């Protein structure tokens, strides 16, 4: 597969979040995307605001000024210095988005010591797979689908091996239980033989 460089602003709609005072945010259901590298970038869940700085996006890729990057198929608000990216000519699905997220992470990992501003982002370039000079979103989708299919096969294989090992362990435990029962039976027979011997000995002495 061939790759070509594209100006990010030519391929993606780019919007950026704005600052909202923590005092204005109340607990709710809408995730807020921040610069954190944890929990898919979600810093908390809040009620929607009517403020012009409270910006809601859905089905987008977030890229923060620190280079953290995630896919959000759900409705979410953006914190300051978190950019929203949506392809101009293609609606995102999880497969295309995961491919692009990894490309963005590779492209911006360690590039900016300070921050990735919206100006920097719009002037930046990214390498994308192409077919006949056109961005091949189908390749991106199928590439991730193939990885997913391979992972599912590996998971099934692992589960099969785990089930076999559990069955072997159960069989070993059954074997150990049989051995314990046999040892107990042998001990009981031995004790019984002693008791019989002692009883017979007493009778013989009485005679």
From TrEMBL:
This is Restriction endonuclease subunit S. The chain crosses the membrane at residues 181-200. Belongs to the type-I restriction system S methylase family. Keywords: DNA-binding, Endonuclease, Hydrolase, Membrane, Nuclease, Restriction system, Transmembrane, Transmembrane helix. The keyword Nuclease applies. The keyword rRNA-binding does not apply. One of its GO terms (molecular function) is endonuclease activity. InterPro entries: Restrct_endonuc_typeI_TRD, Restrct_endonuc_typeI_TRD_sf. Residues 2-152 form the Type I restriction modification DNA specificity domain. Pfam families: Methylase_S (PF01420).
């Amino acid at each position: 597969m061939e790759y070509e460089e594209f100006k990010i602003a030519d391929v993606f709609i780019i919007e950026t979040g704005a600052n909202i005072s923590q005092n204005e945010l109340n607990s709710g259901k809408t995730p807020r995307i921040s610069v954190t590298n944890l929990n898919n970038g979600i810093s908390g869940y809040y009620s929607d605001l009517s403020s012009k700085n409270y910006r809601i996006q859905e089905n987008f890729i977030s890229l923060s000024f620190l280079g953290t990057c995630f896919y959000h198929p759900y409705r979410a608000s953006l914190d300051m210095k978190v950019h929203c990216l949506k392809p101009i000519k293609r609606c995102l699905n999880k497969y295309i988005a995961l491919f692009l997220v990894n490309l963005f992470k590779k492209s911006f990992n360690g590039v900016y010591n300070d921050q990735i501003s919206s100006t920097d982002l719009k002037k930046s370039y990214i390498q994308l797979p192409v077919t006949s000079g056109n961005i091949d979103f189908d390749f991106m989708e199928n590439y991730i689908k193939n990885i997913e299919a391979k992972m599912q096969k590996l998971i099934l294989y692992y589960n099969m091996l785990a089930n076999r090992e559990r069955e072997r362990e159960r069989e070993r435990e059954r074997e150990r239980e049989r051995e314990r029962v046999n040892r107990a039976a042998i001990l009981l027979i031995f004790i019984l033989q002693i008791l019989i011997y002692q009883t017979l000995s007493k009778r013989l002495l009485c005679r």
